[in-house]
């Protein structure tokens, strides 16, 4: 890749700066006006707002029927178990997981400015590790334009299906960065056995754990306590994530504060898709306690829901509306959750418009960051690893 100068942009809405990019990383953030020596390509940023590339911290890129004829929604929408059963019954007939649909979803992410993803990928007795292979093939087809970390995800349960733990172990041995879990109490109905199995693999293979926890109220709180306890005992602080964690929004202030403190002690992180009709998370207490929060799109046009378009900025806006964020600092925080605060969810120590960081950035025609969150303007330019990958909604890879 040539040494690239992106001139006259406003990082985070501040003063105009030039970004010098070399070897896929930001080499220098410099005053505008004079091009340095060695620049081989130049882009006029036209004074646009610049933010880091969006990080989708909770996706399911293997499940989509994007690009296929419309699939009517079916199954029992009232329960996690009902949706699992419906998905297992019809996915093979639709060719899911599909390379073309996975590529299509990743292209939609790029179109909207997402340059890094943590994706749960189904691992079960029916599909084996084929979903993980499909996702890796899709990433390769896009030439490294988007980074994807994989969570080997046991959507159909862990210990209730003999052989799933062995599949998770094989996935971890083959390079999956994380292994997943799912509602240890209500799906497996044996939280101790599920967590025993997951933590044993995580310690032995040195991978992260990312557990879907839909159970609400005290049932969810009980499992959160078990997970926090196991995390500390296994020395896995900073390596365990709770996805959804609806219980935290269901409880009264005292109980909620107790659980946030336990999560902070265990170094748990949290990902949310900010779904409508759910209780807000105690985001202020989580921020003050250093419980990191990431945003994700969840599934997109899959057998769980026909909704989703891959726009993480839309999720940031939904998070802001669900949690009542209105002033400039709060709206900027919503953008930070989707960008620089989310680097840890994809293994990055630094994910920002600073020297040394990977050159992932998005240019938007917006007055400032709050304006971008509430108006969601078109992504004028998307750069990933120092390469222009999308321009005004057209994906170039």
UniProtKB/TrEMBL annotation:
SUPFAM superfamilies assigned: Composite domain of metallo-dependent hydrolases, Metallo-dependent hydrolases
Annotated Amidohydrolase domain residues: 104-389
InterPro entries: Amidohydro_3, Metal-dep_hydrolase_composite, Metal_Hydrolase, Metallo-hydrolase_Enzymes
Pfam families: Amidohydro_3
GO MF annotations, alphabetized: hydrolase activity, acting on carbon-nitrogen (but not peptide) bonds, in cyclic amidines
NCBIfam families xref list: PRK05985.1
Protein name: Cytosine deaminase
Species, as recorded: Salana multivorans
């Amino acid at each position: 890749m040539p040494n690239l100068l992106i001139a006259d942009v406003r990082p985070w809405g501040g003063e105009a700066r030039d970004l010098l990019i070399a070897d896929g990383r930001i080499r220098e953030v410099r005053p505008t006006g004079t091009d340095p020596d060695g620049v081989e390509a130049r882009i006029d940023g036209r004074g646009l707002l610049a933010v880091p590339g969006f990080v989708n911290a909770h996706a399911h890129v293997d499940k989509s029927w994007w690009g296929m004829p419309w699939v009517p929604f079916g199954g029992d929408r009232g329960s996690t178990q009902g949706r699992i059963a419906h998905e297992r019954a019809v996915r093979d007939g639709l060719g899911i997981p599909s390379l073309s649909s996975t590529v299509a979803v990743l292209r939609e992410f790029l179109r909207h400015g997402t340059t890094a993803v943590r994706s749960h990928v189904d691992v079960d007795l029916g599909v084996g590790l084929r979903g993980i292979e499909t996702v890796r093939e899709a990433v390769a087809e896009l030439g490294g334009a988007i980074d994807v970390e994989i969570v080997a995800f046991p959507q159909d349960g862990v210990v209730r299906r003999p052989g799933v733990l062995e599949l998770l172990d094989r996935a971890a041995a083959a390079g999956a960065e994380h292994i997943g879990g799912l509602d240890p109490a209500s799906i497996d109905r044996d939280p101790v056995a599920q967590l025993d199995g997951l933590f044993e693999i995580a310690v032995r293979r040195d991978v992260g754990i990312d557990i879907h926890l839909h159970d609400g109220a005290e049932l969810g709180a009980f499992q959160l306590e078990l997970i926090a306890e196991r995390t500390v005992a296994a020395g896995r602080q900073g390596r365990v994530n709770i996805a959804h964690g609806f219980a935290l929004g269901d409880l009264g202030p005292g109980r909620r504060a107790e659980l946030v403190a336990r999560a902070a002690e265990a170094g748990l992180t949290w990902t949310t898709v900010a779904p409508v009709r759910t209780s807000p998370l105690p985001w202020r207490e989580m921020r003050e306690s250093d419980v990191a929060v990431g945003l994700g799109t969840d599934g997109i046009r899959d057998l769980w829901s026909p909704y989703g378009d891959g726009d993480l900025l839309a999720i940031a806006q939904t998070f802001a509306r669900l949690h009542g964020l209105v002033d400039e600092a709060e709206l900027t925080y919503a953008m930070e959750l989707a960008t620089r605060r989310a680097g840890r969810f994809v293994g990055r120590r630094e994910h920002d418009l600073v020297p040394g960081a990977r050159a992932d950035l998005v240019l938007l025609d917006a007055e400032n960051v709050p304006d971008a969150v509430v108006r969601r303007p078109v992504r004028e330019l998307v750069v990933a690893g120092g390469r222009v990958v999308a321009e005004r909604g057209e994906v170039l890879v």
